[in-house]
Design goal:
The chain is an alpha+beta fold. It has helices at residues 3-17, 42-45, 159-171; strands at 47-54, 63-72, 78-86, 93-104, 107-111, 124-131, 137-141, 148-152, 180-181. It has one domain (3-181): Calycin beta-barrel core domain (Lipocalin), CATH 2.40.128.20. Involved in the storage or transport of lipids necessary for membrane maintenance under stressful conditions. Displays a binding preference for lysophospholipids.
Length: 187
């Protein structure tokens, strides 16, 4: 994807995250109250996460081997670097850089247009629904149900860890039959 394609995808991702995308698909029953891990500590959450599963979103279409890297900034916010391989684990690498902010315990917002972060509609919800005690598996969602992920510190997780994460999504109203398992390199 060329520079213009990346910018268009990035703009679309921001609008989708912000919940303002017209006709955006929801993967959850929004009448089910959403719960977050309000004991989330940011420092142990930082670092690399592998995308184990996601609900389909057009801005990640064709992405495999997806990772997200989070690092602390001096201003208290978090730098975000999302990386995907297009089409195959040895495919071309695409990245998107953004910034996140904590808005409440377990609730973050992310923008991929930080130069315009003063515009409130450019921030999308990124709620940590659950993270294991050892910070090795995390479940992410958004109140509108348009996005959701299972992340892990390693590219592969045991089936029981996957099922436990999927149970968190189900308890939060998500239709886990629509989850896409993301191909990742083996450890």
């Amino acid at each position: 994807m060329g520079r213009g394609g990346r910018l268009a995808a990035l703009a679309g991702a921001v609008l989708s995250l912000a919940g303002g995308a017209v006709g955006a698909e929801s993967y959850r029953d929004t009448s089910v109250p959403m719960t977050v891990d309000d004991s989330l500590q940011i420092e142990p959450y930082l670092g690399r996460w592998y995308e184990i599963a996601r609900f389909p979103v057009w801005f990640e279409e064709g992405c495999v081997g997806v990772t997200a890297d989070y690092s602390a900034r001096p201003d208290g916010r978090i730098d975000v670097l999302n990386t995907c391989r297009e089409g195959a684990l040895d495919g071309p690498v695409e990245t998107a850089s953004g910034v996140a902010r904590v808005v409440a315990p377990g609730k973050l917002q992310v923008t991929f247009l930080p130069r315009f972060s003063w515009l409130p509609f450019l921030w999308g919800d990124y709620w940590v629904l659950d993270v294991t005690d050892d910070y090795t598996v995390a479940v992410i969602g958004a109140p509108d149900g348009g996005t959701g992920w299972i992340l892990a510190r390693s590219p592969q997780i045991p089936d029981e860890d996957f099922e436990a994460a999927a149970d968190v999504l189900r308890r939060n109203g998500y239709d886990t039959a629509r989850l896409f398992r993301v191909p990742q390199d083996k450890d």
